[in-house]
Amino acid sequence: DYLQQSSSVVIMDEVGYFYFVNDQSISRKYNPEQLNRTVGFYSEVTRRIKQYGLEDKVAYRLDRSYLMRVRVLIRQIVMSDLRFGEKYRDMQNVLQHSLTRSILNSYPIECYIPAMRFLVRQMKRRHLLTVYWMIRFREMAHNTNWLKQLLHRFGIRR
Known about the structure:
The protein is an all-alpha fold. It has eight helices and no strands. It has helices at residues 2-5, 34-51, 55-78, 84-96, 98-106, 117-125, 128-144, 146-153. The longest helix is centred in the middle third of the chain and has 24 residues, at 55-78. It starts with a helix and ends in a 5-residue tail after the last helix. The mean pLDDT is 85.
């Protein structure tokens, strides 16, 4: 809809952003309806993309956006106050959803950002315990800075 009002549009291959992590943000809290909302958003954007004939230009970015939202949703599940069995079930529901399966099976994982390739491969294979612990350890490392300190000892600054 915004495109119709634009005098010109440029579509770039990459997206850049800057974000601030706020643990109190609602975007960091798990909502059981989030998968349905994400699927609904994807479906609506897909409909509009087709309406304007932009499939060839933005389909890859839309799939990448969906996978990012799925990663965030799984992180929210892992970090939620749910019991482990409930977390496992909810993660399973997300990774077994037909849209998630379709995108994971068709998305060129080798083109994914390097830091997330292994995680996305585990999501594709539905290795839930690996996904769970990768996210859990990442959050623990992020919150305590122990991983950053360890990498600094080895001369790795990033």
